[in-house]
Specification:
Layout lengths: L6 E7 L20 E7 L5 E7 L3 E10 L5 E9 L15 E7 L5 E7 L9 E5 L2 E8 L16 E7 L5 E6 L1
Antiparallel strand pairs: 1-2, 2-3, 4-5, 5-6, 6-7, 8-9, 9-10, 10-11
Length: about 170
């Protein structure tokens, strides 16, 4: 919740009808769940909803309120490269992904995190210094190119500024 008591929630769905009819255009062979992001009033009434969907699998389960009344969500995506040109060249089998929403539910910015191997976003914390992101990575390039990998799978901590630009990252 935020200071006003508003509630922000995400869920993963395989549904493509009813409340989730807007996801139908992303349905491809197989069942690829997509994430729905929702804002509720402090009384529990739906204020707005949006979907984070692409041609692949998305699971966003980290949520944090921003000081301006907006929200940041993070999770993991696997995108079929041929179908979506809005992501950087640093695709992996999975990518960490962060989306910052305005208080009205508009996307302020969205970024994938990681490199050309498997990457996740596990948690997000908003501080007065920026957005702290934790996750795992098998990548040794792109966002993690200057860092020393300690093995097959590393944990990471990353700090983003309010515009989503990386300020700091470290592998563990």
């Amino acid at each position: 919740t935020n200071k006003k008591g508003e509630i922000f929630a995400t869920c993963v769905t395989n549904s493509y009808d009813g409340n989730f009819a807007s996801l139908a255009e992303y349905k491809i062979t197989g069942n690829n769940p997509n994430t729905v992001v929702m804002k509720f009033s402090k009384k529990g009434d739906l204020v707005w909803s949006s979907n984070i969907a692409g041609w692949g699998r998305s699971e966003f389960d980290s949520v944090a309120a921003t000081p301006d009344g907006g929200w940041v969500v993070g999770g993991t995506m696997s995108i079929i490269k041929r179908a979506n040109g809005s992501f950087s060249k640093c695709y992996g089998s999975t990518d960490g992904y962060i989306v910052r929403f305005t208080p009205d539910g508009e996307v302020y910015w969205a970024h994938n995190l990681g490199g050309t191997d498997a990457d996740t976003v596990e948690d997000i914390i908003v501080t007065d210094k920026g957005i702290v992101v934790t996750g795992t990575t098998k990548s040794t390039n792109c966002d993690f190119a200057e860092l020393i990998s300690s093995g097959n799978l590393d944990g990471y901590i990353m700090v983003l500024d309010n515009s989503g630009k990386m300020v700091f990252a470290n592998l563990f």
